[in-house]
Amino acid sequence: MDSAASEEDKEVFCLMRVDKSSGWLRLAENTEVTVGRGADVTYQLLSPTCPLMISRLHCTFKQQEDGQWTVTDRKSLNGVWVNRCRIAPEKSHVIRPGDSVQLGVAVTGSDVEFDYILAQKPLKDVKSFLETDGTKATHVFKKVKRKMSPETEPSTSSKSKLYRSSGTDTSSAQSCPLQSLETKKQRRQQSTTRSEITDDKEEETPGDVDNLQMFSQNIVMLKAQVDSTERQVATLEVRPRQSAPFREEQVRELQGQLETLRAKMMKMKTLEKSFNEAKRQLEAREEEQKTQQQEERLKKQLEDALQEQKKVMDELALSRRGFEEKLLAKNKELEVTKEEKEKARAQREEVVTQVTEVLENELQCIICEELFIEAVILSCSHAFCCFCIHLWRKKKDECPICRRVIESQTRCLALDNCIDRMVDNLSLDMKSRRRDLVSQRKGLAAPSPR
């Protein structure tokens, strides 16, 4: 009981059919679920409005190792749509609870026949709505047995009773009790009247194929009457001579009735043949009408499928035009970005050129014509290399530019830092040359400024 209850409380993944209280599809764990209209799929979907809407193998659902479910379109005609977007065929697409999954397209209006939503719910809540996997709809047609009406049932009472008094006992020489000719004529007239009524009924029935069984039974009954009449004729022929006048009269009557019955039997056989022929023609016409209806239905389905395919092709063409327009816009943006990059590079090169000119014109020592190395500022505010001004002051103690007496000199770390950062952006040759120059001057161990 506990295991059954836990199984009922277990949450399962299923595809809930939109606006339907049945036909939900359960997605079993660690199993590839196949959907289509073929016979060898997990769930067989048959569209009553458009049989070709679902392909034989339309799509498959599979759970990944991380527990997420994926859907794959198996190159179906009308596609698989996730959240109103058609997914690419033969590529797994991850779906999450709450996502909309549509199989096929809408035939009329905007409603899709097979519209589902992925959900994760307890088994007991969805068990009554789930579709049984692998089931197919079957239809059993019972053949209705036709019951014959009492009017059409054969009756032995229709047999002639005119000769019931003609016994077969020949032990006595006396003749059998004879009936008057008037009574025989009356019975013959009654029999003829009944025969005419039967003939009228038979002439009215050729158009009704369902009465063929009744005519077959009438033929059997007529054969029985013919056999009975022939036996009576044979009985009268073997009777004694004393009853010859009456026997001859009975034989003639029986022979007349025998001829009438034979004519009726021939007529019934002819009617039976005509009935069989009419029945075959009617069945052939019904079969031809069914074939024509089936062909028309197939043509209509094919036209609907072609129209749907045309709609899909139009949608693809429209999407292609949209993608081409977006691609052109992206190309234009790339061209504009490329032009902007070219402009930025030109500006950067111009800035580098200007910086180089500034370095060459403003940050060079006029004595060594190199960038300042350990720059010092004199009392007159002019800057020189520490090593260069030291050598200069050995000859003259005045500024090389303004010729003022040098009263003091001071290191300028700001110039040194600025020059070092600018040198980092110069070429490798200039960097290497400056490193060699700095090392050379440091080796000479210039004295520190006063």
Describe the structure.
The protein has 450 residues and is α+β, with helices and mostly antiparallel strands. It has eight helices and 14 strands. It has a six-stranded antiparallel beta sheet. It has a five-stranded mixed beta sheet with strand order 4-3-5-6-9, with no helix packed on it. Helix 4 packs antiparallel against helix 5.
Structure summarized in a few sentences:
The protein has 450 residues and is α+β, with helices and mostly antiparallel strands. It is built from eight helices and 14 strands. Helix content is 48%, strand content 13%.
Query: Strands across the major sheet, in which order?
Result: 2-1-11-10-7-8
Give me the strand/helix succession: HEEEEEEEEEEEHHHHEEHEHH
Number of β-strand runs: 14
Structural class label: alpha+beta
Query: Helix count, per DSSP?
Result: 8
C-alpha geometry: rod-shaped
Mean pLDDT metric:
77
List the helices and strands and how they pair.
Elements: H1 2-9, E1 11-17, E2 25-27, E3 33-36, E4 43-44, E5 59-63, E6 69-73, E7 80-82, E8 85-86, E9 92-95, E10 100-103, E11 114-122, H2 123-126, H3 181-204, H4 212-237, H5 244-361, E12 375-378, E13 383-385, H6 386-395, E14 409-411, H7 413-423, H8 428-443
Parallel strand pairs: 3-4
Antiparallel strand pairs: 1-2, 1-11, 3-5, 5-6, 6-9, 7-8, 7-10, 10-11, 12-13, 12-14
Helix pairs in contact: 4-5
